[in-house]
Amino acid sequence: MKAAIYPGSFDPVTYGHIDVIKRAAEMFDELIVSVLDNKAKTPLFSVDERVKMLQDVTKEISNVKVESFSGLLVDYAGRKNVHVSVRGLRAVTDFEYELQIAQTNRLLSKGKLDTIFLTTSLEYAYLSSSSVKEIASFGGDISLCVPPLVADMIHEKFKDTDMTTIIE
Ligand code: PNS
Asked: What pLDDT digit, counting tens, does each position of 138-164 carry?
């Protein structure tokens, strides 16, 4: 069985991520979408909230599983015996960061974890979780950026918090 991991912060999941998930799920028997539990960051959504969001938006895709992980991606992938990491590339600005992560992971895994890149569909090339949070924090329309359930969850968060401190 050919499996891949799509790791990320997904804070929150956007239509851009969902586009990558759908396309990667067609290439592999199993796609594990894995939310990084990063203690060094202050996310808008807890890991559980992000996992639940992702489960909801991928519920129609039978070969997608959603999990969380902490620590190094290579260790997590090694435990699961998965050798491919999937990442989306929106523009050349993503490339340096992604190249660095991909090469580091190949080095750390002694060649066992490779990364494949899917170029984001053009209609989502502008999208990022950070801009979605910023737009929502100022009361803007995020309906073209995230599914309705995610938009509701973001608006709920923004209701009584000063979000400007946690937009990263
Ligand atoms: O959605 P993001 O925040 O761009 O995802 C980044 C992610 C989760 C892919 C990356 O930070 C990661 O894999 N972190 C786990 C720690 C790790 O393995 N670091 C070594 C590679 S630099």
From this structure: 999 999 999 999 999 999 998 866 555
Q: Whose CA is nearest to atom 11 of ligand 1?
A: 8
Q: Measuring CA to CA, how many Å separate 81 from each of 74, 77, 140?
A: 10, 6, 43
Which ligand 1 atom sits nearest the alpha carbon of residue 85? 9
> Cis ω on the peptide bond leading into residue 12 (within 30° of 0)?
yes
- Please tell me which residue in 9, 17, 87, 109 is annotated as part of the active site: 17
pLDDT band at 40, cuts 50/70/90?
confident
- Please tell me whether residue 16 adopts helix, strand or coil conformation: helix
Question: Does residue 44 form part of some domain?
Answer: yes
- Domain enclosing residue 68, as ranges: 3-125
CATH of the domain at 32: 3.40.50.620
Q: Closest by alpha carbon to 125, among 167, 86, 168, 94?
A: 94
Q: Which residues have CB under 6 Å of ligand 1?
A: 7-9, 36, 72-73, 101, 104-105
Catalytic, 17? Answer yes
